[in-house]
TrEMBL record:
PANTHER family with a match to the protein in the record: AMINO ACID TRANSPORTER-RELATED, MEMBRANE PROTEIN
Lineage: Bacteria, Bacillati, Actinomycetota, Actinomycetes, Micrococcales
Membrane-crossing residue ranges in chain numbering: 21-40, 52-73, 94-118, 130-149, 161-179, 199-216, 237-259, 285-310, 331-349, 355-377, 389-406, 412-430
Chief location: membrane
Keyword Cell membrane: yes
Protein name from the UniProt record: Amino acid permease
Keywords: Cell membrane, Membrane, Transmembrane, Transmembrane helix
Organism of origin: Cellulomonas wangleii
């Protein structure tokens, strides 16, 4: 991260090469696709046919926090994101570390969940292989691509974003076609959950849906590279979230109308079931699209996690070996290995829905910190114009984060707690080691 002191001294900053359309596609690609391909079934298992309502609630909650990011990114247009805002607001290195580590842990947990999504029914449409060993091979392949080079990885992002968006639109069109020919049950989209209260079940489903909206927060790290950030960033951010929200809302309506919610809940490839019912498109073609979407999500997530681990090591927050790079490829080799090993352990020991919920839990702490930081930093004035969120929205965002935290189950708190405890231990050991002076110095 380029510091303000370095900038004042005339050190060169990052090139502002990110335009509005590129930023929109980056955020949309990060938000749209990977999670929803696997989690619609899990959502139907909780909310019955009211998947569309759960998506709507999750969208509103995501937008509340997005307003806080729009203000802070345009107010402090520097790379670093939530950890920087925490450092400015609370002036505590430990708090800043915890916020950054929550982001890092969320990335590794997310990659583990996506590896299980990749090796579910979408892969078994071609290969009948055991899920866990296949997930390990998948994560190793992602690590190899990550290590090969950042340029090679990101060049494919726009193409993959178009592919995964096309896949979701295809499901919506096919679902509408099934409804139009009279082979669907529109009442299925309004079937309440069978065994629990409607709002309790829908909120539980919204917690899973929230996982499908996260990813927008990583765009804060591009702040120094966005042209006319105060004008461009809010438009791209809200435009991408609303676009994803419309797609998810339509998916959440057609899927339980075409396939009974109980059947969706039993499938690890729920959108594939819609395609099979329509019959107009080979299921194998859609399975390929889904695999591309999930693989792209996992690759972007592990790129973020490995670079974040590398950056934290450079700042003395994690052990220094994680800042080592591969000499020829100039990628953070040690950080890639460490984050991949942790993701493999999580994939071997976890279930998809639990991993997705734990990602949300970890990011809720990040979002809670960011939403409070907006209010704390209102006393800090800057010279340039920036986006300003209505004061009520960060307050409502804090309430929404707390509400979603109350919906988390014990095993999700346990996993998140173990990861954070390990992080704090590593942080303390790293800080202690950095203070040790050699005897012959």
């Amino acid at each position: 991260m380029t510091s303000e002191t370095e900038k004042a001294a005339g050190a060169p900053g990052l090139k502002r090469a990110v335009t509005g359309p590129l930023l929109f596609l980056f955020i949309l690609g990060d938000v749209l696709g990977a999670g929803v391909y696997a989690l619609v079934g899990e959502m139907a298992g909780q909310a019955g046919g009211l998947v569309w309502l759960a998506f709507t609630i999750a969208l509103v909650m995501a937008l509340l926090t997005a307003f806080s990011y729009a203000e802070l990114v345009t107010k402090y247009p520097h790379a670093g994101g939530s950890a920087v805002y925490a450092e400015k607001a609370y002036r505590s290195p430990l708090v800043a570390f915890l916020v950054g580590f929550c982001m890092l842990a969320a990335g590794m947990v997310s990659a583990a969940g996506l590896s299980l999504a990749f090796t579910g029914e979408y892969l078994t449409a071609f290969l009948d292989v055991p899920q866990v060993p296949a997930a390990i091979v998948f994560l190793v392949l992602v690590a190899l691509i990550n290590a090969w080079g950042i340029k090679e990885s990101l060049r494919a992002n726009i193409g993959m974003t178009i592919i995964e968006t096309t896949g979701l639109v295809l499901v919506i069109v096919l679902g509408a076609w099934v409804i139009g020919r009279g082979d669907a049950d529109l009442g299925g989209a309004f079937d309440p959950p069978a065994e629990t209260g409607v709002w309790v079940a829908v909120l539980g489903s919204a917690l899973i849906a929230y996982y499908s909206f996260v990813g927008f927060e990583t765009s804060a790290n591009l702040a120094e590279e966005i042209r006319d950030v105060s004008r461009v960033y809010p438009r791209a951010l809200f435009g991408a979230l609303l676009t994803a929200g419309v797609v998810y809302l339509l998916l959440g309506f057609v899927a339980p109308a075409v396939i009974a919610p109980a059947e969706l809940a039993e499938s690890t490839g729920p959108l594939l079931e819609v395609v099979r019912t329509a019959g107009a498109v080979p299921p194998e073609l859609f399975a390929v699209i889904a695999l591309v979407a999930v693989a792209n999500g996992a690759l972007l997530t592990m790129i973020m996690a490995s670079r974040l681990g590398y950056g934290m090591a450079q700042r003395g927050l994690l052990p220094s070996p994680m800042s080592r790079v591969l000499p020829r490829r100039q990628t953070p080799g040690v950080a890639i290995v460490v984050t991949t090993v942790v993701a493999i352990v999580l994939a071997v020991t976890g279930e998809l829905v639990d991993l997705a919920s734990t990602v949300v839990l970890l990011l809720l702490f990040v979002f809670l910190s960011t939403n409070v930081a907006v209010l704390v930093l209102r006393r800090d004035r800057v010279e340039h114009d920036h986006f300003r969120a209505p004061t009520a929205l960060p307050v409502l965002a804090v309430v929404s984060c707390l509400l979603l935290l109350t919906r988390q189950e014990a095993q999700h708190w346990l996993l998140a707690g173990v990861l954070l405890a390990v992080g704090v231990l590593v942080y303390l050991v790293t800080r202690r080691s950095s203070r040790v002076v050699p005897a012959d110095a």
